[in-house]
Design a protein that fits this description.
alpha+beta; Nucleotidyltransferase, domain 5; Serine Threonine Protein Phosphatase 5, Tetratricopeptide repeat; seven-stranded mixed beta sheet; two-stranded antiparallel sheet; 9 strands; DNA-binding
DNA sequence: TCAGCAATGTCTGCTAAGCT
DNA sequence: AGCTTAGCAGACATTGCTGA
């Protein structure tokens, strides 16, 4: 994007949010939008204290019903000895801030928490929906009251789901509570950035939440506020107290939280169907998943599923998946299965990894020194070693095998 | 008994990438 | 832009097994 495109994009966003495109004319000359005089209170926000506002929205998109323990580690007390955790234990959260650093000058002005709840309404009983509570700070002095109100939604016994929240949101929040001499006890942090990278990085490249929304969730935002503009728009709001200045940011923030819930649902769907060849309807087909990444996520808690994923990918011609599967077989003592894979990898693609494994197998397991030497000579003849250490290792092996043979 | 090998674990340093 | 995290590679230590 060149500077001209960027300028026009910024103008069009400003036009949507407050009509204040920079035209060279003074503020006084500009014609305000008809709704420019609206306040937070006109837009569904409730005033909690002088500078703190709160809004509740209900979203009915694709939501996780129960969530597996696959993405959680042993430090998560909520998941202790459970393979499935009720969705009510998960809180989806996101913040908007005045900058990127965790330093003193950067504050959180918008925080949102999404709770999965089940309807008690007579007509929709049992239906799960996402209730999102947004908290807005309308000016800096209200920060202590803002943080105090937020404590209502942060409890140590829940699992807090975010996108890059481990690095960003949680740290900034902790730092704001510390700056205000207040205590906060966050629950377990589940950051979907890292699992998303494993699943899609090799397929779609960049894995920002926006990329994931577009490529995986198939969501298109009509006109979104780019992150880098958020601080400026908030500062405009502080100066002008015009609600329409910040309207786009709040909408963007609500979308982000809603997408988090949907993204967790996609993870769950993938885990549930791992190893099966068809992923139905809502999301991209199986070829759109990095089999190695999915298997690596499943490896600890569902090793049998990880093996199924790799096996199915290997059948489809993914040699790296075959290599991974062979190591699982080897560790489990299933040598015959491992040898079949190594032979195929060697025959089909002259895989150095497979050849080294076969040489080890014939030397130490099958005690067939001639065969071990044969494959060692074959692979040494390839002359396409990226890692010189492997070649040296093979030459050492060759020397040893010749001695053994004699 | 001991040397050599393979596997595994730990530590360190570096890089890439996400958030507003 | 600043900060944090995970992943990766390389170096090194430890353990267990095997065969001379």
């Amino acid at each position: 994007m060149d500077i001209k495109d960027l300028r026009s994009r910024i103008d069009s966003i400003k036009q949507q949010t407050n009509g204040s495109v920079h035209t060279g004319k003074s503020q006084r000359e500009k014609k305000p939008r008809p709704d420019a005089g609206k306040t937070l209170l006109d837009n569904g926000w409730n005033r909690i204290s002088e500078m703190v506002y709160e809004k509740v929205s209900v979203i009915n998109n694709i939501l996780p019903e129960a969530v597996s323990d696959i993405l959680l580690d042993e430090s998560c007390n909520t998941a202790e000895n459970k393979t499935m955790i009720p969705a009510e234990n998960f809180v989806f959260y996101d913040t908007e801030t005045t900058g990127l650093s965790a330093g003193a000058g950067n504050i959180v002005f918008l925080a949102g928490f999404g709770f999965l709840e089940t309807s008690n309404d007579a007509t929709t009983t049992g239906k799960t929906y996402l209730k999102i509570v947004q908290l807005f700070l309308s000016d800096f002095p209200g920060e202590p009251a803002f943080l105090e109100r937020m404590k209502k939604y942060i409890t140590p016994d829940r699992i807090y789901v975010s996108y890059n929240g481990k690095s960003f949101d949680a740290n900034i929040l902790r730092s704001r509570y510390a700056m205000n001499a207040m205590q906060i006890d966050f629950g377990y942090q589940l950051d979907l950035l890292y699992s998303s990278r494993r699943l899609w990085k090799n397929i779609i490249g960049a894995c920002s939440l926006g990329d994931i929304e577009r490529e995986v969730l198939d969501k298109r935002r009509a006109l979104d506020v780019p992150g880098f503009m958020v601080p400026d728009l908030y500062f405009d709001f502080i100066r002008t107290a015009r609600w329409d200045t910040i309207e786009g940011v709040n909408a963007h923030h609500l979308e982000d939280i809603s997408s988090l819930a949907e993204l967790l649902a996609v993870h769950e769907q993938l885990f549930a169907e791992a190893g099966e060849h068809i992923l139905p309807g809502n999301y991209k087909p199986a070829e759109y998943i990095d089999a190695l990444g999915l298997a690596s996520l499943l490896a600890d808690k569902r090793p049998e599923k990880a093996a199924l994923v790799l096996s199915s990918a290997f059948k489809g011609g993914n040699h790296k998946a075959g290599a991974g599967l062979s190591i699982i077989h080897k560790r489990a003592g299933r040598w015959d299965d491992a040898v079949i894979i190594w032979n195929r990898l060697w025959d089909d693609g002259k895989s150095i990894f497979a050849a080294v494994e076969l040489a080890k197998y014939y030397e130490h397991r099958a005690h067939n020194i001639e065969k071990a030497l044969g494959i060692t000579n074959d692979v040494l003849g390839l002359e396409r070693f990226r890692i010189t250490g492997i070649k040296q290792e093979l030459e050492k092996r060759k020397k040893r095998l010749i001695t053994k043979l004699n």
